[in-house]
Amino acid sequence: xxxxxxxxxxxxxxxxxxxxxxxxxxxxxxxxxxxxxxxxxxxxxxxxxxxxxxxxxxxxxxxxxxxxxxxxxxxxxxxxxxxxxxxxxxxxxxxxxxxxxxxxxxxxxxxxxxxxxxxxxxxxxxxxxxxxxxxxx
Length: 137
Description:
Helix content: 10-25%
Strand order of the largest sheet: 1-4-3-2
Strand content: 35-45%
Low-confidence stretches: none
Number of strands: 8
Mean pLDDT: 93
Order of helices and strands: EHEEEHEHEEE
Largest sheet: 4 strands, mixed
Structural class: alpha/beta
């Protein structure tokens, strides 16, 4: 099997703040910005990985969800308990300095892990946990 990641989804409550973070702080490119039935999806990705996209979507964007389920998703996002993604970087410390300077919520400063990576963690503007790993540190 030739299986590769193509797209992953991150729930955000304010697309403009999310774009400012993912594009202006992390350096991802905006690939698509689509509105449909009062919702918005913004696709971003790394120029170094054109085949992989991250879609910034409203919480509970599934059209089959009930209003109560949408409300529950929005509450979970506000608490910061929805899962985020892990990015890799060649220089964890430089990335940390740039993201910290943006005012993002720091969860973990760069540290060497016993399993062979150096990593750090932040919350994006919506509260999602983002980790950044440097392999072979």
